[in-house]
Amino acid sequence: MRLRTAAVLLVLAAALVASAVAGLALGAVRIAPERVFDIVLGGLSGERRPGAFAAIIWDVRLPRVLLGAVVGAGLAVAGTVLQALVRNELADPFLLGASSGASAGAVLVIVFGTGALAFGMGLPLAAFAGSMAALVAVYAMARRGGTMTTGRLTLAGVAVQYVLSALTSLVLVLSAHPDQIRSVLFWTLGGLGGARWDELALPAGALLLGTGLLIALARPLDLLLAGEEGARTLGLDTARFRAAAFVLTSLVIGVLVAYSGAIGFVGLMVPHAARMVVGAGHRALLPVAALGGAVFLVLADLVARTAAAPAEIPVGVVTALVGGPFFLWMLRRSTRTEGITG
Hints:
The protein is an all-alpha fold and about 350 residues long. It has helices spanning about 1-25, 35-45, 50-85, 100-110, 115-120, 120-140, 150-175, 180-190, 200-215, 220-225, 230-235, 240-260, 265-280, 280-305, 315-335.
């Protein structure tokens, strides 16, 4: 199993490099792959190449590709953990309202909290608070008598999403500044077009720290996924562990959404694909999901930039077009498993 996981990680790492090269080479201006390698390797060795191609790659496309990889990896890891915490295969940062909560928190700070924006950390903190509040609300509404069905979880997630979307729309109506309206639309649809080198450190740090801590918690996650009673019997304080994992996951989601907007379905599809390849054990599943999410979002952003060029589609629209049918298939399969008909 370890050899298989190592082989899968190696294949995904190669796929990530290939997708990154495609992301750097393709766009409104096409650059040959060998030219991309020359420019990137030259820059890494401290000898930045002159010319327009080098400026396009270093100043525009490379930070965007890196942000896409970081956000895709983080959302896939968050979705994997949420599916274990709520023991439901439909859990996803977007479907559970966490991404919408983070967007709502960010939008409120953008429109009404100029002082917090000036402080620098106001946006990520507001996104974290919104993400955490949404997850707690959905979990509280979906859990009744110690159990949680797919139907209740889905309805609770949809309800929280509607409330948060209404709040975001209200803010949009109240805002009188065109720049703020454009920012609000960005949070609702998601996008990587605003990626900058000086803004990559925080989401990358949140991803590395959060994923490292969650991999360290792989065994409790395995116990929780296997059954609450069994986990308690083996000495796990399920309530305390679940609360701590919710806070950590919300922090990762909030920071990522603060820089990318709400991008849905990555945390739903990628964990299922990873589980089919390496099984349900979280020590192998989490790194495989992280690399898979990075590859998926880099390619999705490439489609968003090139499918309707010179116009650009929000990457959240691309992931929704893929993830929506997948969600409906999963919902149908889950309701059949629970014996719900009609």
